[in-house]
Every structure is written in structure tokens, then in C-alpha cells.
């Protein structure tokens, strides 16, 4: 599997490359967005890993590059790394669709087994959102219904959905039955006014509604 890494921090870039090469992956690195996009065009990677903040402005270059390469290759799994929680970037990234999209804090890289598991999940088409991102967003107060109408249990289920977990994994995490999880999700869809629609993914729409809800100042 070919992994393309875009990271301006030379030490982190080399560390990521060494870690993945030790696992048997082919690794191509880039220190900037232009080099990353050129490498992606030259040969389609199987997975892309990008830092959120890249030269020259160190604002949102990584996110914009992720969006651009995703437009080039809609099925390309992408993992974005950030030093801290940046809600707007997570929302912008997920707006294109959540399949094979990941958003993790850089500190997770040090937890090697978990990090490698996240990469495997992304390649399998799952969504991987850092638990800390979810936790911080849920800690913020919500302005009004419908998000505020969710029960504590429903908010817990939605937070795990935002991490990309399926019903069985949510049930295991909460120590409840899959039937109970299904019921909570059905209630979430109802309260968020998300009727069945074959042209959209209600799980993704529920998570996006949550991420896009403004906090009370």
C-alpha cells in the first residue's frame, strides 16, 4: 500500500515515514502542499496523511489540499492531523462526505497500535474522528432545538457515531444491545428531522448537524 504524507515538520514527517515503512508500507513524503498535490497527480496513493497547517500561511492549507485531492480522487482515504481541535476544519472536511475520512490529533500518532488501527479503518472506508474532537464539541452548550432536544443517552450515541463507530461497536462501548442503539439512532433521526432519504446518509447528516451547531457565546 502506498501512503503519501504531507507534513512540514521534518522530525514528525521522518518519524511517520519510519513507522509506516517498518510496517511494510511504501511511503512518499512531501514538505508542502504543492509537492503533495504533484505527487498525488503523478501516482494515486492508497492513503493520504496531511497536516492541517502547512506553509506558507500555516492556516488551512492542509484542509484545502485534502478537499482538492478528494475532488481528484473521490474514494481516496484521507487522514488529517492537527495539533489541537479545530471544529471548522473538521466540518469542512466532512462536508464532502465521510467515507474514508479521518481527523486526528497529532498526539494519537504516539499510540502506535491505535494509530495503525485508524489507518486500517480508513482504508476500509470508515470514518475516524478523534474522540477528543467529539468530546470538546459535545462539551459546548447548544443554542436551541433540535440538537438540545437529544437525551443524554442519545448525545452519547451521536458522539460515537461522530467517531465513525457502527452500531455493534457503539453497543459494545455503551454495554447495551444493538437493538437499544438502533432505537436511540431512530430517535436522533426523528428529533433532527432526518426522514429516510436514499440520496443521503442520515448518519453523516446527523453528525454534520451536530458539528455545525453554533455554541452559546
From TrEMBL:
Residues 143-214 form the HTH luxR-type domain. Keywords: DNA-binding, Phosphoprotein, Transcription, Transcription regulation. The modification 4-aspartylphosphate is found at residue 51. The keyword Transcription applies. It comes from the Bacteria. GO terms for biological process: phosphorelay signal transduction system; regulation of DNA-templated transcription. Residues 2-121 form the Response regulatory domain. Transmembrane segments: none annotated. One of its GO terms (molecular function) is DNA binding. This is Oxygen regulatory protein NreC. The gene is nreC1.
Amino acid at each position: 500500500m502506498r501512503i503519501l504524507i504531507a507534513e512540514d515538520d521534518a522530525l514528525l514527517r521522518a518519524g511517520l515515514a519510519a513507522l509506516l515503512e517498518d510496517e511494510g508500507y511504501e511511503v512518499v513524503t512531501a514538505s508542502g502542499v504543492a509537492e503533495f498535490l504533484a505527487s498525488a497527480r503523478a501516482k494515486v496513493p492508497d492513503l493520504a496523511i496531511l497536516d492541517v497547517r502547512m506553509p506558507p500561511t500555516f492556516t488551512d492549507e492542509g484542509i484545502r489540499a485534502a478537499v482538492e485531492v478528494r475532488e481528484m480522487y473521490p474514494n481516496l482515504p484521507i487522514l488529517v492531523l492537527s495539533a489541537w481541535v479545530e471544529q471548522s476544519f473538521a466540518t469542512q472536511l466532512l462536508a464532502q462526505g465521510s467515507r474514508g475520512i479521518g481527523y486526528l490529533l497529532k498526539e494519537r500518532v504516539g499510540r502506535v497500535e491505535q494509530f495503525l488501527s485508524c489507518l486500517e479503518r480508513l482504508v476500509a472506508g470508515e470514518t475516524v474522528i478523534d474522540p477528543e474532537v467529539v468530546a470538546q464539541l459535545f462539551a459546548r452548550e447548544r443554542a436551541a432545538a433540535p440538537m438540545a432536544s437529544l437525551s443524554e443517552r442519545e448525545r452519547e450515541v451521536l458522539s460515537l457515531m461522530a467517531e465513525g463507530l457502527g452500531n455493534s461497536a457503539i453497543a459494545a462501548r455503551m454495554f447495551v444491545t444493538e437493538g437499544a442503539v438502533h432505537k436511540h439512532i431512530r430517535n436522533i433521526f426523528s428529533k433532527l428531522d432526518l426522514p429516510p432519504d436514499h440520496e443521503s446518509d442520515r448518519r453523516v447528516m446527523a453528525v454534520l448537524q451536530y458539528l455545525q451547531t453554533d455554541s452559546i457565546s
